[in-house]
Amino acid sequence: MNAATDAYVTPDAYIxxxxxxxxxxxxALTVWVARTLHKNGRLFLVDVFCGNEPxxxxxxxxxxxxxxxxxxxxxxxxxxxxxxIDTLRESIELLSGKLGGVLVVLGLMHFFNLFVFSxxxxxxxxxxxxxxxxxxxxxxxxxxxxxxxxxxGAWSSASA
Length: 160
Fold this sequence. Notes:
- It is a single chain.
- By secondary structure, the chain is an all-alpha fold.
- The protein has one domain.
- Helix content is 71%, strand content 0%.
- The chain has four helices and no strands.
- It has helices at residues 3-6, 11-48, 53-77, 88-133.
- Helix 2 (11-48) packs antiparallel against helix 3 (53-77), helix 2 (11-48) runs parallel beside helix 4 and helix 3 packs antiparallel against helix 4.
- The longest helix has 46 residues, at 88-133.
- The termini are far apart.
């Protein structure tokens, strides 16, 4: 311990400051990534769902909710530590490791979502190409018209 810098800091102060910094930075990163993905992912989802904008917007919103739930849960689970933090350096190292874990989880979730929606997009485009390549029916067949009886109901010899 450095007596000049640590004289006014209790042993628990470093860990509390580290926890506060971890939670605030992690939440800010999660919100920023979620907003970025929501904003920029819309066009991709519209394409995945073949132009169905209401469905794409609904899925986009549900993805953001799930993204928040998973990340906030991970941030909460990763908060605790068994390490004793006695110096500012140890505090920064712990904070760096915890934030690195959050960033890796955010990145993995992003790439997993991209993979899943790329698979869905590929299937949708294959289905669309198959539909376009199928021969379309010529339309409803119209039976030839039957002869119509004259107004008087009797057939004349000229029409026979």
